Amino acid sequence: MAGLYYDEFVIGQEFKHDIRRTLTETDNLLFSALTHNPAALHLDEEYCKSQSEFGTRIINSAFTLGLVVGISVGDTTLGTTVANLGWDEVRFPKPLFPGDTVHVRSVVHGMRESKSRADCGIVVFLHEGFNQRDELVASCKRSALMKRKPINKSA
Prior knowledge:
Elements: E1 14-16, E2 21-22, H1 25-34, H2 40-43, H3 45-51, H4 61-76, E3 81-91, E4 101-113, E5 120-130, E6 136-147
């Protein structure tokens, strides 16, 4: 497994994820179309030039959230999570634009035993996404139901 089990996490543990991703106009267009989001801020360059404070199209924030969390999966929860329980305190302090490159850091923000499942625990991750200038562009707290490490019964 690439991911860690509940028992392998420690509050304050930090992950600087190796995966980086340069965003394209196609990413933004396809995601906006697939999710039925027709906002001119994502699709209409002429509107953005004349009526937006950004002067150009910005990356769909739902894509940004999914990308930031997705980049974290390989180092944290791949194969060891049962389910995401929710995202809290989702913030986008700066926009992303086509051509920006995103990198991500995750910190174990909290942990607790599952009250309903003895074989699991809940980990709260703080995920932060940054652009190529190291400016914070997205953050969220994600609660994940994580498997406990299997007990080796043959030992």
